[in-house]
Protein: Undecaprenyl-diphosphatase
Amino acid sequence: MELIQSVLLGLIQGIVEWLPISSEGQAMLFMVEFLRLSPADALSLAIFLHLGTMLAVILKFRIKFLNVIGRHSKSDQTLLRIIVISTLATGITGVPLFFLLKSFNQGDIIMFLIGLMLILTGILLRAPDSTIDKYKQIEDMKMRDMIFLGLAQGLSILPGVSRSGTTITFLLLRKLNQRAALEVSFLISVPAVLGAVALSLLTSSSQPVVSLENAIVMISVSFLAGYAAIDVLLRFSERLNFSKFCIILGLITIGVAVLPWII
Structure:
């Protein structure tokens, strides 16, 4: 693999990871179609790429993680419960789907449905009785919300199914404040990525498909691009009202889902 290809893969991961489209699916498409890697090798490498964006989350939210560990406030205590419970629930769906991956993948269809749900949520929130006072905060999340959030996140092991898309959609449908929804999605990604990488390494019997130099380049580029993308998305969420935020994300999701059918 050439250095420029490693840079492109890092950029794909860093930019797409936080959008409601599958970074894993886009990276795999690039690797299979243009780099001629096998689907199994492409999947392993796509999972590995998440380490860069995971490091970006840790750096961006380092104070938040430290506060969560120290449980300094009610919000921090709730966040810790969300991270632990959703991670356990993620394993319930994620691990079996990881082993069934080669025989089943309906990622495009699920992506399309996610987009529709986001748009529908945005339209419903434009009703006259939809006010900002009705938006929930992190402290309002219940145990069942945390469990279903984790179950939804586990679906993202399927190429074409966006982790951020499924988790943000679920949280927005539960009327969580949009910035809080983004932050929760970012935070719960860290243990999910660590688990996915560990599972991939433990079940892989083949040699690494890239050199150490290329691996470092991929992680570095995905880290830098991912960190910048987090800032952009957070600012984007603050400038738009809740309804427009949902509709725009939904249109992006549907556009990416139907693009392969058009081409």
User: Anything to note?
Assistant: The chain has eleven helices and no strands. The radius of gyration is 18 Å. Residues 212-239 form the longest helix (28 residues). The chain has one domain: 3-262.
